Predict the structure of Diguanylate cyclase.
Amino acid sequence: MTPTDPATLILMYFVLPVWLAAGFADWLCHRASHIESTSGVKESLIHLLMFAEVGAPLLAALFLDVNALILAVMIVAFFVHEATAMWDVTYAVSRREVTPIEQHVHSFLEMIPLLAIVTMATLHWGQFLALFGLGDEPARLALAWKQQPLSGAYVATILGLIVVFEFLPYAEEFLRTRRAGAPLHSER
């Protein structure tokens, strides 16, 4: 499928790439602050948890029919991710310097998922309303593959970018913090 709807194109070619760039920028900030010798493994594990919290809804949006169930998963994952982000920052600021640049990057990492969800709700308005018992459509709660899948080239490119700019850097961060031997439970 080659999408032509402006909201879909903005989501695919602007929102998602900016989100990936912000995630990579955050990793660069962690590296610059020497996370391996300050907040260590625990903060790195929190980052991997947040990666999973946003990764599951993203994979669902790439491969599954977006219906009331998928929108609900996205919304719940957003709030869980926000709670984890608060835990992450609370933990980090007591153990290392979180610079203004990193704080600004965090603002992108918090608001871009919200922008993505709002855009998805707009694109699937009937199912969004149905999630709350409103509108004319019944809420669809089944997991189903997209009837019109995204192009294989787009999906492969996005998954490749996720691996290169998100998964590998955060896996490297985890390994770096493990090798440095910073304690999982800090005294501070």
